[in-house]
C-alpha cells in the first residue's frame, strides 16, 4: 500500500540520479513544478545536455555519492544499475529524504516507490493578479477526484465550496487553507449566485489562488458556466478541471450501464429545476431505447412521472433512485416508473433518478458494497 503525496517543489533541491530518457521525462516534470534540479550522471541525453547548457538544470558529471544528498527534498533515481538504486534507496531512507526509484524496462518505465510529482496546475500569480480554478469534486468518493483537482486543492490559498463536497474530500485539503462555504440547499440559498460571483472576483483580485470547488462536474448543472462568465467579464484568469458527474459516478457504483447495445443507444441528463420554474423542462421525443437521468428531481417526482407518461413512456419502465451515490451510505432503490414517487419519498438527498431499460441490469451488475471492494 502506497500513500500518494503531492510535493510542493518550487525552488527546492531535487536530485536526479541518471542521465537517460527516463531521467529526462522526470526532469521536465520537475521543471514544471519549479524545482531546483541537480542531475548526476556520467552522460546526458541530448535533451538533458541542452537543458544543462541553458542552465535550466545543473549537471554533476559522474556517479552518485551520498554527499549529493545535502539539502535535497526529493531524489529520483533512474539508473539501470540495481545495486546503485538500492544504495540510493537506503541512503535517502536514513537521511529521511523522499526517493523515487524509476527503472526503464524495455520501452516502459516502472516505478518502484511512488512519489507523485504533480506539475502545478496554477501558476504563482504576480502580486495583485490572482486566478480561479473551477474544479469538479466528483459525486462524493474522494477516490474519484482527478489528479489535477487534487493538485489544485493542495495549492489553493482559498477554497470556495458547495455543500455537495464530501467530508472525505475536505480531509485532503490542508487545514491551513482558507475555506469559504457557499453551500446552497434546495429552496434555501445561503449565498446568492451574484454574491458567489462577487466573492470569486474579489478573492482573485486580492492576488489569491482561488479554487471554486463544485460537486460532480462544474459545468453540468453546476452553474459553473455562469461563474466563468462573471470571471471573464471581470478579466480574471481562470481554468476548469472537469469532474465525474453524478450520472456517471452514481450509475457506475449502482451497477447500471448508462448505455448498452441491447437497451439504450442514447442518454439525456435533465434537471428537475430550471432557472425560471420549479418543475422539469418539457419532455419531448423520448424513445424507449434512451436512458434519462434526472438531477435535482426528488421534489419533482410527481411532475417527472406526469411528464414522462404524457410523453409516451410506459409506467412499467424500470427506474432507479440512487441516494448519496458513490459514498459509503449509498442506497439504490429500484422499481418501475409507476412507483417513482414512493421511491423518491424514501430516498436520502442528494439523489439521482435513472429511468430506462438499462436499470434492469442493476440486479446482476450491482457490485458496490462500502468497505468490501478492492477500490
Ligand atoms: N455538478 C453536479 C450536479 C449539481 S446539481 C454534477 O455534475 O454531478 C445537484 C444534483 O446532482 C443533486 O440534486 C443530485 O441530483 C445530483 N447528485 C450530486 N451528487 C450526488 C450523489 N453523490 N448521489 C446522488 N445524486 C447526486
TrEMBL record:
Coiled coil: none
Span of the signal peptide: none
UniProt keyword annotations, A-Z: Cobalamin biosynthesis, Lyase, Methyltransferase, Multifunctional enzyme, NAD, Oxidoreductase, Porphyrin biosynthesis, S-adenosyl-L-methionine, Transferase
UniProt keyword NAD, yes or no: yes
Record InterPro entries: 4pyrrol_Mease, 4pyrrol_Methylase_sf, 4pyrrole_Mease_sub1, 4pyrrole_Mease_sub2, CobA/CysG_C, NAD(P)-bd_dom_sf, Siro_Cobalamin_biosynth, Sirohaem_synthase_N
GO MF term set: uroporphyrin-III C-methyltransferase activity
Annotated catalysed reactions: precorrin-2 + NAD(+) = sirohydrochlorin + NADH + 2 H(+)
The keyword Oxidoreductase appears for this protein: yes
Tetrapyrrole methylase domain span: 132-340
EC id: 2.1.1.107
Pathway info: Cofactor biosynthesis; adenosylcobalamin biosynthesis; Porphyrin-containing compound metabolism; siroheme biosynthesis; sirohydrochlorin from precorrin-2: step 1/1; Porphyrin-containing compound metabolism; siroheme biosynthesis; precorrin-2 from uroporphyrinogen III: step 1/1
One of the GO biological process terms: methylation
Record Gene3D superfamilies: Cobalt-precorrin-4 Transmethylase, Domain 1, Methyltransferase, Cobalt-precorrin-4 Transmethylase, Domain 2, NAD(P)-binding Rossmann-like Domain
PROSITE patterns: SUMT_1, SUMT_2
Family to which this protein belongs: Belongs to the precorrin methyltransferase family.
Protein name: Uroporphyrinogen-III C-methyltransferase
Organism lineage: Bacteria, Pseudomonadati, Pseudomonadota, Gammaproteobacteria, Enterobacterales
Amino acid at each position: 500500500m502506497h500513500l500518494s503525496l503531492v510535493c510542493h517543489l518550487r525552488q527546492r533541491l531535487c536530485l536526479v540520479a541518471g542521465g537517460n530518457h527516463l531521467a529526462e521525462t522526470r526532469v521536465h516534470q520537475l521543471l514544471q513544478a519549479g524545482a531546483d534540479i541537480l542531475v548526476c550522471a556520467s552522460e546526458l541525453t541530448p535533451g538533458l545536455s541542452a537543458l544543462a547548457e541553458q542552465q535550466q538544470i545543473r549537471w554533476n558529471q559522474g556517479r552518485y555519492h551520498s554527499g549529493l544528498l545535502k539539502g535535497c527534498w526529493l531524489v529520483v533515481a533512474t539508473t539501470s544499475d540495481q545495486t546503485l538504486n538500492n544504495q540510493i534507496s537506503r541512503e535517502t531512507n536514513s537521511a529521511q529524504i523522499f526517493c523515487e526509484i524509476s527503472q526503464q524496462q524495455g520501452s516502459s518505465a516502472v516505478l518502484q516507490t511512488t512519489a507523485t510529482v504533480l506539475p502545478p496546475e496554477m501558476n504563482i500569480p504576480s502580486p495583485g493578479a490572482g486566478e480561479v480554478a473551477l474544479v469538479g469534486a466528483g459525486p462524493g468518493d474522494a477516490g474519484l477526484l482527478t489528479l489535477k483537482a487534487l493538485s489544485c486543492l493542495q495549492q489553493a490559498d482559498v477554497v470556495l465550496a458547495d455543500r455537495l463536497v464530501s467530508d472525505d474530500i475536505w480531509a485532503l485539503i490542508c487545514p491551513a487553507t482558507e475555506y469559504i462555504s457557499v453551500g446552497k440547499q434546495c429552496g434555501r440559498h445561503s449565498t446568492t449566485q451574484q454574491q458567489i460571483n462577487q466573492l470569486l472576483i474579489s478573492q482573485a483580485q486580492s492576488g489569491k489562488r482561488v479554487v471554486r470547488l463544485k460537486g460532480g462536474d462544474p459545468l453540468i448543472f453546476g452553474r459553473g458556466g455562469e461563474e466563468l462568465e462573471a470571471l471573464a467579464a471581470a478579466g480574471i484568469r481562470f481554468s476548469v478541471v472537469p469532474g465525474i458527474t453524478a450520472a456517471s459516478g452514481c450509475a457506475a457504483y449502482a451497477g447500471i450501464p448508462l448505455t448498452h447495445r441491447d437497451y439504450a443507444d442514447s442518454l439525456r441528463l435533465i434537471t428537475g429545476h430550471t432557472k425560471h420554474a420549479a418543475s422539469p423542462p418539457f419532455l419531448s421525443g423520448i424513445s424507449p431505447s434512451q436512458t434519462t437521468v434526472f438531477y435535482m428531481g426528488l421534489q419533482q417526482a410527481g411532475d417527472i412521472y406526469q411528464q414522462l407518461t404524457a410523453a409516451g413512456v410506459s409506467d412499467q419502465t424500470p427506474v432507479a433512485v440512487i441516494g448519496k451515490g458513490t459514498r459509503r451510505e449509498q442506497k439504490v432503490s429500484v422499481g418501475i416508473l409507476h412507483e417513482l414517487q414512493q421511491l423518491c419519498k424514501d430516498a436520502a438527498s442528494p439523489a439521482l433518478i435513472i429511468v430506462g431499460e438499462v436499470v434492469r441490469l442493476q440486479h446482476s451488475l450491482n457490485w458496490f458494497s462500502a468497505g468490501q471492494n478492492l477500490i
